[in-house]
Amino acid sequence: xxxxxVEVRVTPRAGILDPQGKAINSALHSLEFxxxxxxxxxxxxxxxxxxxxxxxxxxxxxxMCRKLLANPVTEDYEIAVGGR
Amino acid sequence: xxAAIVTFPGSNCDYDCYKALTDVIGAEAYFVxxxxxxxxxxxxxxxPGGFSYGDYLRxxxxxxxxxxxxxxxxxxxxxxxxxxxxxxFQVLCESHLLPGALVKNESLKFxxxxxxxxxxxxxxxxxxxxxxxxxxxxxxxHGMGNYVADPETLxxxxxxxxxxxxxxxxxxxxxxxANPNGAARNIAGIINEAGNVLGLMPHPERSMEALLGSTDGxxxxxxxxRCIDERAGVGAGAA
Lengths: 84, 239
Hints:
The structure holds 2 protein chains of 2 kinds. Chain A is of the alpha+beta class.
């Protein structure tokens, strides 16, 4: 068993309105960052996972995402597995 | 009628439901703590409003894995009547008993005020005592009531008449101004395919007494009682 550091990035799915992103977008415009567009706000979940292989860690975390960490109706997720 | 009111850590409308059911409707109601495994043979399960688990992760996401939800899902799948109000609606979506999801209000603000809703379908166990198209005054109190689903799901809900309540103005016109949270197609409440699970963002349990500004929630609870009585074979032909 190896301990893997895993990061899950959960983001609002394209096409789903992201009110937080919109508010931050307009706040950045008020700060005169006119070059900013299309701000989206997500969530970063960092964890340590015990698994026999990187592949197994990824598979486990993918299951966690589908069951709990992300809502498939509104969110996408990406998993990054690092060594430890 | 026996109603089980599920209490999660952070539920705060459980007593409102209890009072509505017992004092106003004259039904039997009791609380079931989320860690319990037994619903105690109810006719109706209510998932009340509040902020279960502090809305951590997503509203309703963690409550959905409470032990009592296993029983609630089984009860629903067997045809039992389940109503999720506000946070309860969020829990029903997270549990996949209802399609779609509830995300942050378009305004990003918590909205707590009276709204008007149009009753879109009276052929449900929850709305038979309303008139088709009746405009009701309910209260909303939520930060995440913005109903979203993909266009195919929305079209399916419309085609199957599963949109039960829609935000409207006092005259029943469905307008963007009457929409308190940005919900797709002004959707305030939907029902599952089998017609026994209702989720809605407004709080009918707060519209039970004239003193509190509206009694428009009473027919909803009366509808439920009528359905339960009919299922039990009592009251047929009675007023």
